[in-house]
Design a protein that fits this description.
The protein has 310 residues and is an alpha/beta fold. The protein contains 15 helices and eight strands. The chain has three domains: 91 residues, Orthogonal Bundle (Multidrug-efflux Transporter Regulator, Chain: A, Domain 2), CATH 1.10.1660; 71 residues, Methyltransferase, Methionine Synthase (B12-binding Domains), Chain A, domain 1 (Orthogonal Bundle), CATH 1.10.1240; 119 residues, 3-Layer(aba) Sandwich (Rossmann fold), CATH 3.40.50.280. The chain starts with 6 loop residues before the first helix and ends with a helix.
Length: 310
């Protein structure tokens, strides 16, 4: 799915006339995710929007053919930094230089053993280069859900069967964590949206899910206050109130004790004013709770983040 813009953006785009599109309509027309379009706009100044009186963006219909060509160039292996800022002539040269790969190459990339071998040999530079390239090619959601998370799961499985050591799992976690932090930094510096406080509950030491959430929210335009792992409930609540946060986000893994998770969520909800929603996600989330917003995946989190950032 390419993603959706807000209903108000869609309505305003229709009122503006047939030559302008909301970002959701632009994403659907080009098959480029909304978050990726926003990333390119901030990083490369393209696509260039017009602003409605409400502040929402609308985009010229004429940008669709170029964005489709950019998407095609990415499918052929080029990086976003090479093709998004390129002139029309340069883009044509790049496309003519490399033939289309087709669906077979995409499937092959999904089943590549290359990153696993890099983990096996502790190839930090190679792994970072590969993951960075995949980020540029796929965009935030596809990168996190289709590359990072499956690789982490695969290495965890290899460790559980004895094919890899715990050192390999820790190595990958550190490399992915470093990359997620570096990718988030440019968005943090430009953030103008609502403040969202992120943390894990006391005793919860698994942090990568929280870092993925922080990156998604930052790309969506939110101002992320990242408190990290194993944070006392009282401190989460206090900082959220002091910062006048619009939301608090928690990540819960299956490794965290379910009883402690429920107790921590209950205490946090009691210490926060009702105006501050608690967003809870992760494999260990207690889905039966009704006093918090259970976020089922990063795509839903992105939609929430965009609404908070408006």
């Amino acid at each position: 799915m390419a993603g959706k813009g807000s209903k108000q953006e869609e309505t305003e785009a229709r009122k503006a006339g047939p030559a302008l599109l909301s970002i959701g309509a632009l994403a659907q027309a080009t098959d480029v995710p909304v978050a990726t379009l926003r990333t390119w706009e901030m990083r490369y100044g393209y696509p260039l929007p017009e602003r409605k009186p409400s502040g929402h963006r609308v985009y010229p219909l004429s940008s669709v053919p170029r964005l489709r060509r950019i998407a095609e160039a990415l499918n052929r292996g080029y990086r976003a930094a090479e093709v998004v800022p390129a002139s029309e002539g340069q883009l044509s040269q790049l496309l003519s230089a490399v033939p289309p790969y087709g669906a077979a190459v995409e499937v092959a990339a999904m089943h590549s053993e290359e990153p696993l071998e890099m983990v096996r040999h502790f190839d930090s530079r190679g792994l970072t280069r590969l993951l960075t390239s995949e980020w540029a090619r796929l965009g935030p959601l596809d990168f996190l859900q289709g590359r990072s998370a499956p690789l982490l799961h695969q290495v965890g499985e290899e460790w559980s069967t004895g094919s890899l050591d715990v050192a390999h799992e820790h190595f990958l976690s550190e490399r992915v964590g470093d990359l997620l932090r570096s990718l988030r930094l440019p968005f943090d510096e430009r953030a103008r949206g609502a403040q969202v406080v992120l943390a894990t509950l006391p005793g919860e030491l698994h942090e990568l899910g929280l870092q993925m959430a922080a990156l998604v929210l930052a790309v969506s335009g939110c101002n992320v206050c990242y408190l990290g792992a194993d944070v006392p409930v009282e401190q989460i609540a206090r900082h959220a109130k002091d910062l006048r946060a619009r939301a608090v986000g928690l990540s819960v893994s299956t490794a965290h004790d379910r009883r402690r998770t429920n107790e921590g969520i209950k205490r946090l909800r009691e210490k926060l004013p009702r105006r501050i929603p608690v967003l809870v996600g992760g494999d260990g989330v207690p889905v039966s709770r009704t006093d918090v917003k259970v976020v089922k995946d990063l795509e839903e989190l992105q939609s929430l983040g965009m609404r908070l950032a408006e």
